Amino acid sequence: MRSRRAAAVLASGAAVLLGACGGGAQTPTTPTLTEAESSTLTVTVSVTGPASPGTAPATDPCQPAAFVADFTEPVVLFCAGGWARAGQAQTDHVLLYRLEGERWRQHPHDGRSSATGYVCYDESILRAEGAPRELIDQVLLCRPENG
């Protein structure tokens, strides 16, 4: 009897916890056991949220983890308006990205600096494609001598 009460309390706590994770206004129910029932307790919890069936819940696309395909220790230097500038921690390896659907795609550079060899971007192309001003101010812009 004592183990049944403990199971009921644990199940009730789990229902409350999972209900809170679902983000909806769910009212947990406390399972009740009778003397005739088996000591096996099955709890079914339905969690509702913004994700549709078969898809993972949406995550913040600006988190460094979103760029692990290109960097072992990614850092995000800019992320807004469907654009990002991310790179490898403690290096000068930095790339531009555009959000396409739920995936970041590298935005191609337009040339290289003749002085440093770093990639540069054409300001008029970035503007035409909708890059935020704050991002344009952060990147090396191509000059006629950079190609």
Automatic annotation (TrEMBL):
Question: Record's superkingdom?
Answer: Bacteria
Q: Which N-terminal residues, if any, form the signal peptide?
A: 1-25
Key words, A-Z? Signal
PROSITE patterns xrefs: PROKAR_LIPOPROTEIN
Q: What is this protein called?
A: Lipoprotein
